Amino acid sequence: MNPRSLILCGALILALGVAAGAFGAHGLKRLVAPDLLDIWRTAAHYQLIHGAGLLLVAALWPHLATGPAAWAGGLMLAGLAVFSGSLYALVLTDVRALGAITPIGGLMMILSWLALAWAAWRGPHV
């Protein structure tokens, strides 16, 4: 990943996160059980956090070691796709087994933040 792709992905993910949150609050409210609506909110919440995280990695890029920064962005993107994607799919299909892959996405998100810390540690000293 590079700063431009991180900005592009982050902005699109944030726009979709706002849309997902609005859809959950207005469109799904009457269609799914309250516990599923909470799951949807969790997916949208983490999507928004990690969309902003992608922008953060791009903004900090000049101060980071390039390799770990690229890993941070890639892991963040993959993690939010797996985490939020599996939760959205669970709500829309009511296939509870999809929740089994959600922690894999969560682990990738955790690793992305650790990779960002490593990128900062190894980056140029200003």
UniProtKB/TrEMBL annotation:
Compartment(s): Membrane
Topology term for the membrane: Multi-pass membrane protein
UniProt xrefs under InterPro entries: DUF423 (IPR006696)
Keyword Membrane: yes
Protein name in UniProt: DUF423 domain-containing protein
Stretches that traverse the bilayer: 69-91, 97-121
Lineage: superkingdom: Bacteria
Entry similarity comment: Belongs to the UPF0382 family.
Keywords (A to Z) from UniProt: Membrane, Transmembrane, Transmembrane helix
Pfam families: DUF423 (PF04241)
Keyword Ribonucleoprotein belongs to the record: no
Signal sequence region: none
Organism this protein belongs to: Castellaniella daejeonensis
Main location: membrane
